[in-house]
Amino acid sequence: MTIKKFNYAKAYYLFKKIRSTEEKIIEIYESDVIKSPVHLSLGQESIAVGIALASNKKKDIVFSNYRSHAHFIAHGGDYKKMWAELFGKESGLSSGKAGSMHLGDLDINFIFTSAIVGSAISEAVGYALALKLKKLNSRVICYHGEGAMDQGTFWESLNFSALKKLPILFVCENNHLAIYSEQKKRMKTLNICKKVESFGVRSIKIEDNSTKNIFKYAHKALQGIGKNSQPVFLEINTYREVDHVGTNYDFELGYRKKDKQQLLKNLNELNYLKEKTKNFLQVEKKISKEISDALNYSYKSNFPKIKHIESNVTKE
After folding, report:
1. At residue 278, does pLDDT exceed 60?
2. List of residues 6+ apart from 251 with CB closer than 8 A
3. 254, burial (CB in 10 Å: exposed 0-12, middle 13-18, buried 19+)
4. What is the C-alpha to C-alpha distance for residues 114 and 120, in angstroms, rounded to an integer?
């Protein structure tokens, strides 16, 4: 069994790149160069980074959701094409037709996402079943929020994964909100892990959502899945900094209070990784160049032509 070491420099690079990318999105969004709604991951970066560092690009298949920028970047998706897709350009991941909520890059086994809440869960379980039937030494990672667990398909999928002993890691990013509805107003029983375990699925609740801690638990879980072909469920507490959709801070709406302690915790995590990275200035310079190059690439790319409106689109 191969034991991975936590790479502080890589963690800082990914964490900083995700945050810098989304800060740039906020900066330019009002100019209307981004042609789709955006669901930002600010505050949730440590989950994507920790999971990605624990994963194996060659053997892990990733399913995400409409809040996928962090996952996509952390798992190594084509960065320039991601930006071009946000711009609606033909050089984008889906020729500019899909936008922010439908990112995907099959070259890194990152399956295209959907705007439908919880839709990827059953798809991920189906993929895990296929892996098992074909006796392939691969695993599925499925990111979802606790809001997706309000869907019946989650519990059906969980039950099936346990019954068939499928190689899948469920990663629940619990920010305690489904749009503007608090978890305690939607769920009678708040102990998610206890409910999951009643289906025969091993669950782990991660209270300390530092990047290194998430990496540690995810690495161990993935190793166990690879050895035993059994599903594992991770619940990770997190804090969404901005509105459910868009680029604004939504505290004035009144459905939640500004948690200064959580905001500081997210910033402290980034600074901690920075302190552990000897060449952080080079890392930051690299990120700035990558963002600049991706923006130039997107600005210079053409919009798709009208005659190609039905190209690469499934027809019923």
Report:
1. yes
2. 257, 258
3. exposed
4. 7
- φ/ψ of 63, rounded to 5, equals -115, 135
What is the per-residue pLDDT for 1?
Answer: 54
**Domains by residue range for the chain, with CATH:** 8-302 (3.40.50.970)
Terminal Cα distance for the chain, rounded: 47
Residue with token string 């990047």 = 211
Nearest to 115 by CA among 66, 72, 62, 180: 66
Looking up tokens 């948690």, which residue turns up?
Answer: 259
Asked whether the predicted pLDDT for residue 289 surpasses 60, the reply is: yes
What count of other Cβ atoms lies within 10 Å of the Cβ of residue 197?
A: 14
In this predicted model, what pLDDT tens digit does every residue of 202-227 receive, in sequence order? 999 998 999 999 999 999 999 999 77
Residues 78/25/38/83 CA torsion (nearest 10 deg): -20
pLDDT per position as a tens digit, 9-20: 999 999 999 999
Tokens 């906020």 sit on residue = 26
Q: What is the pTM of this model?
A: 0.95
